[in-house]
């Protein structure tokens, strides 16, 4: 019996070939790009909100 992860193990999933991996990556590339853009936009929105809160807090103090 071969141990999973053992060096020299020959039997691998058909889904692990470079072609299969590229095919799967291509399938989800657009959605991943949209998700990444939305994530970056959300980060910028939260940063602006945080900075606005900091400014308001400083104005109240001073």
Provide mean pLDDT, rounded: 88
User: Which spans of ≥5 residues are poorly predicted at pLDDT below 50?
Assistant: none
Tally of alpha and pi helices: 1
Total DSSP E strands: 0
Gross morphology: elongated
Alpha-carbon distance between the two ends: 74 Å
Main beta sheet strand tally, sense and closure: none
Give the helices and strands as they follow along the chain.
H
Organism: Salmonella sp. 96A-29192
Keywords: Plasmid
Protein name: YadA
Summarize it:
This protein has 62 residues and is mostly helical. The protein has one helix at residues 18-61. The protein has a domain at 38-62.
Structural description of this entry:
With 62 residues, the protein is mainly α. The chain has a domain at 38-62. It has one helix and no strands. The model has no long low-confidence stretch (mean pLDDT 88). It comes from Salmonella sp. 96A-29192. This is YadA.
Annotation keywords:
single chain; 62 residues; mainly alpha; YadA; plasmid
Topology:
Blueprint: H1 18-61
């Amino acid at each position: 019996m071969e141990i999973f992860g053992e060096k020299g193990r020959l039997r691998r999933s058909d889904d692990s070939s470079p072609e299969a991996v590229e095919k799967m990556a291509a399938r989800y590339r657009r959605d991943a790009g949209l998700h990444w853009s939305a994530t970056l936009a959300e980060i910028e929105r939260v940063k602006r909100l945080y900075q606005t809160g900091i400014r308001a807090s400083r104005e109240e103090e001073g």
